[in-house]
Amino acid sequence: MAKISLGMKRKATESSNLERNSEAQSWIDRFAPQSKEKLAVHKKKIEEVESWFARNLISKKFEKGKAPILLLVGPTGSGKTTSLRVVAQDLDIHIKEWLHPITQESNTAQGSAWREGGQQDYPKESVVEHFMDFIFQGSRYNSLFDNDSQRIILLEEIPSIFLRKPEEFHEALRRYQAFGRCPLVIILCETSSSREFKLFPPEIKRELQIHTISFNPIANTLLHKAIRDIIIEASKVCGKNFTHPMDSVVESVVQSCQGDLRLAVNLLEMNCMGTAKKLANFEKKKPKATKKDSKAATTGIGAKDSSLYLFHSLGKILYSKREDKIIHELPQHLKLYERPPTKEVPEEVFERTCVSQDLFTRMLENNAVNFYGSVKSASNCAEFFSLGDHVNATWDPSGVLDSLAISVTMRGLMFHLEKAKGKTHFGTFKKPTYDRRKTDDLALQVRHEFLMHGTSTEMLVSDILPYTFIIRPPDLSQGQWDVLNQCVLVRKSQMNTRQIEISEKDVFDEDDEVRVGETDFEAGEKVLETVSGAAEEFEIEEIDFN
Amino acid sequence: MALYVDKYRPKDLEKLDYHKKQASWLKGLVNGGDLPHLLVYGPSGAGKKTRIMATLKELFGSGVERLRIEQQVFTTQSKKKIEIRTLSSNYHIEVNPSDVGIQDRVVIQELLKNIAQTQNVAVTAVQDDKERKKAFKVVILTEVDRLSRDAQHALRRTMEKYMQSCRLILVCNSTTKVIPAIRSRCLGIRVPAPSSSEIVGILNYIAKKESLNLPQELAQKIAQSSTGNLRKAILMLEACRVKQYPFSADQDVILPDWEIYIRDTANEIIKEQTPQKLFDVRQRLYELLSHLVPPQLIFEELLQRLLEKTDDSIKGRIIAEAALYEHRMHLGSKPIFHLEGFVAKYMAVYCEYQEEAAAMFD
Amino acid sequence: MVRAEKDLPWVEKYRPRTVDDVASQDEVVSVLKKCLQSGDLPHLLFFGPPGTGKTSTILALARDLYGNEFRQKVLELNASDERGISVIREKVKNFSQMTANQGKIRYRIVILDEADSMTRDAQTALRRTMEKYTKTTRFCLICNYVTKIIPPLNSRCSKFRFRPLPTDVLVNKLDEICTKENVNFRGSDDLKFLIELAEGDMRRAVTLLQSAHRISAEKITREDIRNIAGVIPDNVVEQIYTEPVLDRLTKRMRDFVREGYSGDQLLTQLLQMIIADERIEDTKRAALLEKLAIVEHRMKDGASELISLQDLAATIVSSH
User: Do B170 and B27 share a structural domain?
Assistant: First the structure.
């Protein structure tokens, strides 16, 4: 039987009052907000959560068979869980949370054995069973505590098995709605839109009337305020161990965490305790910190993306700045190939970017086209993308070629890029919208729906489907129509040719990609919305590609 | 879904419209009640599948026409589950192993093993059906030319191992990509595309059956546009009927959307050779890919359209570049890079040619 | 046996039973006979083009050696069969350790067919296995290309080169089969035609003959044989080779693909034609041959047959 965590109310108060002085606790827990007023989340969002509770829990009992479901989505550290807990505490609502069996039992010897074996070893079926058990029992039988208070079920960890079989998850939700006796709140840490889309496709949201509240990254102004509050409180609590951080440090912490409050607090703690000295020295050395320097400082502290942002790396390669002087002169007949040395070592740039080779190549390819000065240069550059892909795919047991592929691409590109004359580049980078996995899914659908008419996708797509679409036989099923609508009309396509721009500090989540083990990535990434607040305003003039 | 293609598909070897000698061969082949492994190859829409089904009917009776869709699940060594849909009757099973990508080997091995194990049941079931008793089931594997090397070797092994309980019919467009070990173990049946006049004949036959008045000019035009793909020709006929009936002789033959799109793309490339245009073309290529048009088909079609409008003096170079990039595309993992590479190269070569031509003119 | 005698592949049915039956590999046979007499056998390495009797020879030899015990004493492995050396090692181990050896011959024989398709690593590992069981087991490696066998293995075996069989030997053998099977395809001209199609490969010739026999019960024509072999009519290849206009040739290539012919067959036949062509300049011939190699390589990698062949077309046109 699941371990049901005690009400958040208790946990929250206990952790704040009894253990507050415990050094072992991280700042995240120690300085967790205790009231609505202290939450750094935008007021509107909190009101939204509150009003949902008011509608579904406080004011009236919901109809039988219609247990309400709330979905909170947002990036890490945007205050989803905290808001929920604070609001619940406020309204005297009792939270029961489902924990993954691995999390629960990790304290026992058996648990650690599992962990060594990797999560996959835990029998998946039993996770699902466990999950279902909990979700129903938890909602139907009152626990021993807090008999009077209102209850909600909280689900923060969605078993990974459901990602692969979202239908099962949807079925579970349906059953919950039919039999559940109290509201269900699901928190989805949203780094990739694909997960939300998979688990909660619009039709499910509609069917089950799932209310969605999406949290944005915390605005810088609010972040500032929250951090200052914590500093004040921390200086009271910690005493001698505490070094008051300099303003520039606070500033850089705020800048580098991209609206992730948890990260910000962690960075702050790291800077204020122990490690602070080093940083202070660093700051002193350059008392008149220019904009560029403060940026360097930011990356020094351990920002979200430890080194270079994708945006900058792309710039470094695509602008491929060169020194002024030619060092190695070439003989006359090779003058054509003479170039001054590049300012950047491409391999270094790539390594500091910390993204996969695949993603980096695709981003380069997608954006290089804006940098081609002439068709000649375009064809030379495109040649190297093709060659790089070839090298990348060449099987080589020693693994030497793996690292070479990206070098081939980058160096070939940098060598052949010619500045477009009189054309200034507008300074944005875009991510490709084509999604290989989506196409693969579609291909599968096509074969499923039209299996009777042919077993090869090529044959179906090249003639059977286009003509079936025109002939419109009366007995096509809905599924078949769906497929036809999606893949026949190339000319009137609905594919979004407008590409999504990436901004300076966007970070890409490649998790999905790694898990699936495919070579194509896009589905896994989501561009973070630009955080509100003036500091995030993106201006191209500020970016220095040198 | 009763399209003309399905409605007028000949069901018996005697009723096949063309390659009649081959049909009589096939009849002789199954006359003894047995069947060797077959490798049936030929271009798309030439009638490979029709011939196979007619042969099977000759062998097993009309039971082979009662088809059902089944979902089969196989487990790899790493406990990964692979699902694949098959089309089967009591006597045969059809599957496209390349559906499952690199797991194709597992599918082939497991599928044949399953059939070998359950084969006894099939035999008794068939024996009740008085005269026809067969000790084997037929497995049709489509697109074998797209199987991985690994899977092909596995296939070759299983062919010998389960010869007792099943016969294989392998279907592909070209035998070049089938390993010799498999080729030498199968009886090759080449199914060439029907000629234009054969296609016209079939179109007329269908029109007559449907009591349609089909002008011969239109029939000719359809046969021309279908480029030897009979399935496409019949689909075109039906699409024309839906669009406009009674027919007129100068009616347009409807081409699939993707073909028109590629033709337009080729025109765009000819019209302008600039980086900006390259960007647009690239978007168009993405469009095609996301509509499932196979990259190889895009490449072939695009090249043919471009060649139509290219000066003879650079044609050789263009084809050579196309062959280079297309080959790389098969080795690499990102088709768009190679398609774009080729388009960029084409633009560069075309530009150079125009400059030279202009210089000569001066 | 469920399978009726008539369904037995002729290749198996007419495989030589004794070393003496082996067609026309006199050198090899005489050496092997000596081995038989002395009762000792080195490790063997048979190499030569396909269908020249390598497998037949070792099987016949083993039969001569063991008589009825043949099944227990011989292990036949296709190197490409069971992937990975570990499987081979395991099998060889189990096999070598089977019950104590009785009879006059102390050792067993392991036949590794298609040894050249083994990876280098597998071959290296095989060398160890060979050394380990050398007391009880003899290995016979069979391959097409001796250069693909690593030197350490190479040096441990006695090598036997199998020459392509002379046409008259093949004709006699095929004629014998035709008589026994009552095949109506007799004249030595017809048989020579068949052998030419099979490129001197006995197995291929016999297989073709059997397939043709199955299909046309009455009389086999050359046309039938051609069709089954997937051979392209000479005039088609000729037209391709002599076409002077690129546009027409690219179109011809399109039609060629639509005819369902296989691209590599065209390359094979073109190769013969180019080599036999006395009018062509050497430099152009070289260019053509190089292109043939490239095109074949690409097609084997999965490249589009149409585009590859059109690429070839451009080279052909420029060689006129």
Answer: yes
